[in-house]
Amino acid sequence: MKLVLILFFSYILNLVRGEPRFLNPCLDSVCLSQTVTYKCESGSPFLLRWRVLDTNGRQYALTVAYIDGNSISRIDPIGNEFTTVLINTTGVIVSTITFTAVININNYLIECGPDFITLVNCSIVIPDILPAPVANPLTFGSTHFTFSWSPSTGQCFTNYTVSITSSVSNVTYVTNDTSLVIPISKSFNDTEYSVSIGAVDTGGRYMSSAVIRFIPNAPLSVTNLMLTQTDYPTDTNETVNIIVSWNEPQSSSRPPITQYNVKYNISNGLQIIPTNVTSQTLSGFSVGLVYTVSVEAVNVLGTGTVTLATITIVLASPPPPEISSTSTSMSPSNSGIISSTPSMTPSNTPTQEPSRLSAGAIAGIVIVTIGLALAVSVILVIAIVCYVKKKNEDTKSSVPPQMIEAYNYAQVDYSAKSSSSTIQAPPKPAKAISPEADNHVLYSAIQKSAASHNPPPPPEGTEYADLDHNSSSSGRRHQRPKDTSNQVTYSHVTHHHDRRRVRGSNHGNYY
């Protein structure tokens, strides 16, 4: 019977109440430090309950319940983060819940309804930390540098924080812009600085960008400093101009160069010319003197290393005399002597100076000439040797070999140095020839040899001894005259090879 009464009472309540609902929409996400209020209508004139669940679905702190008859504006807390207020009891009960988002209630769930069966809820979602902006390269001005970055599009963004640190200072700049201009002072010189940027959310959280490091310093020295004399006077009392030119330092200066100082000394007075270009024309330089010119680069942090160059001012070289034309005449009294008289008629025809050969070209021409001369000399020597060799071969081939052998056999050395020595003829040639040819050839050779030496003829009444082989073989000895002052040996060869010895005043022996 009691159970029936409970069911009937619940049925009557459902007939008289509506559905619970939030009167303002739930937020998709809640930023840190943001205060949020939700208003809930229970749908019942008798009861309204608030409950909070943590990330694990468990009830956080105690629940709050309002009923008809409670005083309006009653305040009740749920833990330390939530506060509820009763704002209406006429018709249906209405109440609010307020909280300030902190990181520890992230993903909590707020529930509202007439009981724990029929409920509506809103989630508390806190976004993550904002991504770091993308920093752009630093740009340097003459007195400052500019740091810029990409904008942040996060829901909970509040501002940017720029951090500049070094070994001597640590400075933080806060801005809502996407760039920052930072002045440069001399305290920056030769010190490494680090720059970074972060996008800060409502909870003060941020992530720093990649760090950019740089070292501000005074400029380096200029390069390729050149001094060029532009005019060449003929009078030592004149002054000339020079052009000074140079290149920028090899590495870019941070901060950039603001000017160059060109310094030189004229008449014991130092001249300083500031310029922002890399060339300058200077004047007042005297002929015969040596001048030193210096150039230095300057920026807001100071002056760079000085670069020096020297130049000697010289006179112009006198041009060679220009002869427009010449005439040649022959004098009868001075035969063979040519005199040239230059024509004084001015000529307006432009002349072209001959091109000058370089030292390398002249050396090449000399080497080629010497090589050609050596080649011609070698060819001539080879030709002469070949010609002499050919001539000797032709001469040898014109004399028969038999005559040469016979002549060698018949040649007699007529010597007056010793009266008692007899020189024997050389041996006969080994090669045999015919008797007729032998007799003819040898006889001709003997005649030629005798004619060349002019032997004296034997006197009249000279006795001839029989010197045949028979008498020689029998042992018969023949006496010679005691006077043998001149002794000449002749040879006469017959077909039968007979030998005769002739005695006379000259005592010649013939074989």
UniProtKB/TrEMBL annotation:
Residues 322-354, 448-511 are annotated as: Disordered. The chain crosses the membrane at residues 361-388. Coiled coil: none annotated. Residues 221-320 form the Fibronectin type-III domain. Residues 1-18 form the signal peptide. SMART domains: FN3 (SM00060). InterPro entries: FN3_dom, FN3_sf, Ig-like_fold. The keyword Cell membrane does not apply. Keywords: Membrane, Signal, Transmembrane, Transmembrane helix. Residues 323-351 have a biased composition (Low complexity). Residues 493-504 have a biased composition (Basic residues). SUPFAM superfamilies: Fibronectin type III. This is Fibronectin type-III domain-containing protein. It comes from Amphimedon queenslandica.
